[in-house]
Amino acid sequence: MDKTQLRPRVPNTPSWAYLIELAREEGADALLERLQRSGESIDFNEKDYVIESQSERILTLEDLLEAANVDSEAYDVERKVINKWDQHSVAKGIVELFQVKAWLRPKYLKKADNEWLDKWLDGVHKRLPKIEPTEPTSVDSEKPVVVAIADLHCGAFTKDLKLVPDYNVHELKNRLERVSDVINSTSRPTHLKILGDLIESFTGKNHKDTWKGIHMHGMEVALTIYDVLLEFLQKTPYINTVDIISGNHDRITEANNDDSQGQVAYMVAGLLQRHYPAVKTNYDPLILVNEYDGVCYIDMHGDKPISRRKGSQLAFDYGRQGMYNVIFVAHKHTEEVIEASTKHRVQRVPAIIPGDRYSEGLGEHSASGFLMCEANDVGTIDVRIFGL
User: Fold this and answer.
1) Domain termination residue (choose one: 83, 106, 129)
2) Do 257 and 332 fall within a single domain?
C-alpha cells in the first residue's frame, strides 16, 4: 500500500513539519478547527446590515452570529435564509456546504437623523385619534405663572435603596399629578418649562450599569414619556405653552457626541406640536428664550459648556436688555440659586426624580420638587419651590 494514502489531505500546507509545530503550539483540536475553517467565508456588510457565510461548520443562524461576533445588544435579526449543497473538494472529496444569510436591523441609530424622525412623526400623527383639549373652568387672573420641571428620567427604576425613595413610571405620574393639582389651584395661565432628561436611557448604556436601574428603553420608553406628558397636559388645562429642552439622557445613541440634539425630546415635542395643538410647544436642544409678563426666561438643561458661563454674559447674549432675565438650569438634581442680582437670576430647578442607583453610588441624592414663579411689582420675580 502506498504510504501517502494514509495521510489526510490538507489544503494549503507548506510542510508536515510546519503542521507538527502548529499542533504542538495550538493543540491538535485547535489545529483541526482552523483547518476546517480554511475553506469558509464570512461576509458582514455593515452598510446594508447583511451577514452571509459559506461553510461546512456554520449550519445555523446562531453559528453565524457567533462566528461574525455580532453584538446582540446592537442588532435584531429581521429574516434569515439557510441553504445546503454538495460540492467536490480536491482535498476532502465530496463535502456538504451550508449558506447561512441573515438580514439585521440595528436597535439604535448610530447618528441622529431629523429627516427620518420627521417622516416617522408625520406617519404616527396620521394614525393617532384627534384629541379634544379640556377647557379650564375659570381663570382667576390674566397674570401668568411660570412652572419649571426637570430631570423626569422616565424608565428609571429604583427599589429598596438605602437613601433614595422608590421610583418608577407610576411614581413619576404621581409626582406630575401633584404638579397638575398645584397649577390648577392657581386658576391662572401657565407657561411650562421642561428642562431635559425626559427619559433615563434609550440605549440602556448611558453609564456602565444603567441597565440595572431601568425597566424599559428604546422606543417603548420614548412613547411612554410622551403618553405620560400628554396625560399630564390634558389634566392641566391652564397650561398655555410648553418649552422643551433636551438633556444628555435624551439621546438615542450610546455615545453622547453622536446625538447632541436629544432626539427623544425632539420626538416628544414633535408629537405634541402635531397632535396636541391646545398648547404651543417649543423645542430646542440647547437654549430657549421667551418673554412672559415683562420677564425674559432663558432655558437650558445645564450639561453643556454654555451653562458654565456667567449669568450676566448669558443675559447679555441671549436675554433682553432693560428687562429682568431669569436663567433656568437643571442637570445636577438639586435646587439652588446660583446667581442673583438686580438684573438677572440663575436658578437651578430641582429634579422630579429623587435619585437612582448610580447617584447613590456617588453619594448624591436630592429632594424631588418643582418650581413656580411670577413677575412681581419690584422688577424681579417671586419664586416658590414645591416638594414632591
Assistant:
1) 106
2) yes
| Residue 186: pLDDT over 50 | yes
Are both 267 and 359 inside the same structural domain? yes
Judge if 336 and 271 occupy the same domain.
Answer: yes
Amino acid at position 226, single letter: Y
Please spell the DSSP secondary structure of 38-107, one letter per residue. Answer: TT-EEEEETTTTEEEEEESS--SHHHHHHHTT--TTTEEEEEEEEEEEEEEETTTEEEEEEEEEEEEEES
Q: Are residues 11 and 126 in the same domain?
A: no
Ramachandran area for residue 160 (φ above 0: left; ψ -120 to 50: alpha; else beta): left
Q: For the residues 232-238, what does the mean pLDDT come to?
A: 95
Give the domain CATH number at 265: 3.60.21.10
Report the pLDDT value the prediction gives residue 23, as an integer from 0 to 100.
72
Is 327:311 a contact under the CB 8 Å cutoff? yes
pLDDT tens digits, 92-130 = 667 788 889 998 887 665 555 667 677 777 777 777 766
For residues 71 and 125, membership in a common domain is answered with: no
